[in-house]
Batch of 3 targets.
Target 1
Amino acid sequence: MPNKCLLFVSAVPNKLLDIHAALKIDNICVPLSLERFSQGSVIAIDGIIINIDFKNVTAVETVKESLQNVDRNKTFLVFVVDSDKAGDLTEAFALGADEIIYRNSPKLALKQDWVKNTALRIRNLISSYDARQKQPKVLKQAIKSGDAALSYIFNSAQSGKLIKIQDLKKDIVSIIGALDEYGLDAWLELVRSHHSATYQHCLIVTGVATAFGRSIGCNDKDLERLSIGAMLHDVGKSKIPVEILEKPGPLDEFEWVIMKQHPNLGREIITQAHDFDPEVLDIVTHHHEYLDGSGYPDNLKGSEISDIVRIMTISDIFGAMIERRSYKREASPQQAYDVLSSMTTKLEMPLVRAFSEILKTFQKAA
Ligand SMILES: [Fe+2]
Ligand SMILES: [Fe+2]
């Protein structure tokens, strides 16, 4: 990893010194008070890690104003937030966060684990940021379109506004175009590190489902439907508490019960929207159903599960396994494929075999 200049901006800069120590072997780290940051005294920075109290309106305003002097095309932005305050997360993304670090990660109670984990996240972010800089403009634009589409979907659903297909079409066309031109591997390289866990997951699944649809010969109209379905498939998660969605550790039994409500919540949202093909509603509601009837929420079986849902379920499982979360190592594409192949009673095996074409794109890139 090349040397980077990172700023640690905090009301109490010393609080971040442990992370500073963990990173400084190959990076220049400058702890900085909020006041010094607002004076714009440091130039040529690669990344800024900001630790503020989001309840402090003056601090939030100071950060907002100071960031106007930062070239966001060259500098990535990380915010430290409390995992039990949903408002912190929203504020951080509104201020332009590329990445989030949780201050009070319940699963990483030991301070040294937290420091190690955080340093690792920052390292991943730096590598993905470097990779991003080298990627073609069209691809970066498509990722922005994906981001825009997802914030439109999730914000509309959260605030009770109807989602309109027309507002999504342009972004979907841009994503399909970029995937056709640059391939799934380049897409994943870009989306795997710098988004919230939920956005990352939806962008990965959209890429995987679209590439899969293309490889099995879907026509343009079907492919568009599949991509829209993938973008929306977890829309019900907009109603799940953010501390469960973004929890930096595996969910416990109680949290799973809540999480498993998302297909039904999604069904309500898409039914109210009136705007989508029945296939999209089917994807949103049934992407966790299995052929042997062991899935949810409707315990569908065999032929009750449509072809487009079967494609989405495979893409969703594969996507979830290869995504990068702070508390687990991602599976390699081959490991994820092996898991799909072992789900013989749950997934359609001829489709899983067809999915091996997707695997070849990674082998080519390796
Ligand atoms: Fe889901
Ligand atoms: Fe999903």
Target 2
Amino acid sequence: MSQADWLEKDFYAALGVPADASADDIRKAYRTLARENHPDANPDDPRAEERFKAISEAYGILSDPAKRKEYDQIRQLAASGGLGGFRGFGQGRAPGGAGQAFDLNDLLGNLFGEQGAGQGFGQTFGGQGAAGARRRAGGARRGDDLNAEVTLSFEDALAGVTVTLRLTGSAVCSTCRGVGARPGTMPERCPRCSGAGVINENQGMFSFSQPCPQCAGRGEVITDPCPTCAGSGVEERPRTIKARLPSGVADGQTVRLKGKGSPGQGGGKPGDLFVKVHVDEHPVLRRRGDDLAMTVPVTFAEAALGANITVPTVEGSVTLKVPAGTESGRTLRVRGRGAPRSGGKGHGDLLVTVQVAVPAKLTKTQQKLVEDFAAMDDSNPRAHLEGLLAGGGAR
Ligand SMILES: [Zn+2]
Ligand SMILES: [Zn+2]
């Protein structure tokens, strides 16, 4: 039996089971029917043998999961109109048939075998082969990639955020819903190929087909084009989409959102959306890769004596230990309190640069204490400059 016959047969009906029957139900139905219709059990009924063959054939396909899957795909495609001219050559393409999710050529290639596309195929299945050729002529086209830009607050960029983007790109025409004909009119059957989409040439016993040049294989021509899309069925129009941006995106980074671009045509995949991200500056925090950096003032006493200070961050505050004798400008690292790393692998660090704040005004008592301190302090912070530069380190 040829697999091409699958299109004509209802194996589920042959076994009297629904299309979603389990493997068990199929086996039971087959056993019962095979017993009832076995030729040996019906010596006087010449049609019993026919029925028995049909039952065996149906069971042969439906009991094999891979074959059953292929058979189901074919039936689905036929039911959705996607096979168009399959059931009767010359009926033309079903309107909107371009929306099929499968590549029919792939499916036909599977079903009829790689050699099926050659001569034997054209000879035996004439019009059915044409459907494949027509498909190829129309071709699935991947949707365009689109670009968008978005500006995020520093906090949103760290946390991840869902943004609403307004895009302009090709979409199915809203006036004609992709048909291409002026509303109220219909595409007409192509006069050259009578709606088949292919021109057949007979050479000896073989028949070869090629896409019809007049209708480009569509089987129909648009005599009164849609005013919005000029017959293309595709329109450039703005649309809004929501997109989730991952946590930790950095300024200048481009995020690729798979499948969020323009819709594909003829069953093609949608394109991707590339979102260029701008991140607002933060008054205090800076990004350094996965790390966050900030400068934190401390008093002279905290720097000299050491202290635990509280530092606010985007995600709550952290307590930072400033060791005794910390110089101004020293950077302390708080592990794991930076920006989220891409791929969800934890966080970078928070880098806190300490800046010793000098009081602008001192009370009389404070001034006296500092003077007493200075009198006792014989350190020379400029000692290292001597010898490197002219002049002595004066105090
Ligand atoms: Zn249109
Ligand atoms: Zn044509």
Target 3
Amino acid sequence: MTPIFTVPVSLAERSYEITIRAGLLEKLGSELKHHAVQRKVAVVTDRRVARHYLKTVSETIKRYGIEPVPIILDPGERSKTLKTVESVLDVLARHRFERSSVLLALGGGVVGDVAGFAASIYQRGMSYIQVPTTLVAQVDSSVGGKTGVDHRLGKNLIGSFFQPRAVLIDPLVLRTLPTREWVAGLAEVIKYGIIADASFFSYLQRYMPDLLSQAPIVVSTVVKRSCEIKAEVVSADERESDRRRILNYGHTIGHALEALGGYQSLVHGEAVGIGLVQEADLACFQGWCSHEVVEGIRRIVKAAGLKDTMPRWTPSKIWKAMLHDKKVSAGRVIGVWPTRIGEVHIASLEKPVFDRWYVASQSA
Ligand SMILES: NC(=O)c1ccc[n+]([C@@H]2O[C@H](COP(=O)([O-])OP(=O)(O)OC[C@H]3O[C@@H](n4cnc5c(N)ncnc54)[C@H](O)[C@@H]3O)[C@@H](O)[C@H]2O)c1
Ligand SMILES: [Zn+2]
């Protein structure tokens, strides 16, 4: 039997727990009762997730005398808009949900971000519970309380910090995830090993085949350790000044590549996978880590089925895209650089260094 894991997220009066349990979805009704949900609950999900899981979820919830009110979004990033938020708010208002009511976010990061944001502004904040169903959502977006939507001028430009009442994770739902989405999520998992935990990195190296075949105990362990690391970082620094920055490792180049590809040719995690390797290489170029560190990261990224090489953009295009990212200050890019596996430091990067590295690395 796979164990039940709980991970505390310590944020003073906004603290909550993450529960990780194989088969949890079928028992969601009892979990909701445990979290004091009464009478009715808004279930925000997307069409694809609804097709797989809404029936199961509705049945278990009803068994506990709670009425589910489904709010079904179109799947995908295009739903991350204020318009979608408004449509969620409409349903909440029409069904006379109150501040004391609870909203469930059942889905990937898109559903979590939209539903969390809607919850944060409905009657100045109603409770919500995250039930993440993608690997990205289970190890990243459901933890930390960042909610929000895209604007036509940029991703995640509109949003709020709003912590859920609980995060309920069933690793078994990952079995229906398309392979591309699953592999993309592994980039974030590998990131946690590099930024914070060398023994977790070794675990991933050792158990990658079992992880790829989704052995339940390995998936649960990996989700749990990832949540612990993210929870530890966000608890230390809820509003992203310094400590939280380390979560951006792989994302400076990653975000740039994602944007240059028009969010089509590379999905987020695929771009981050390349970023993990290339940013380590950049760190090595600056003398901050050894070649072995870079090669270790490259090997695990490839073992996970992710790409490790840069697509053929010119360095000035990549630099410009990096500057467009939010995490810049005064024309310099603030980067996160590994010193060894399990340890990173923050330092700014100047364009001449980037250019020299790019020429050297692409001709190597
Ligand atoms: N708030 C944060 O801190 C944070 C962190 C990382 C990412 N994000 C955001 O998360 C979003 C990406 O999330 P994502 O990668 O989960 O994408 P997603 O929510 O678009 O889900 C990917 C696809 O998988 C489908 N799906 C979800 N669960 C499934 C399941 N169990 N079985 C089958 N199909 C399933 C969805 O319908 C969708 O088509 C981005 O908008 C990103 O900005 C937010
Ligand atoms: Zn990411």
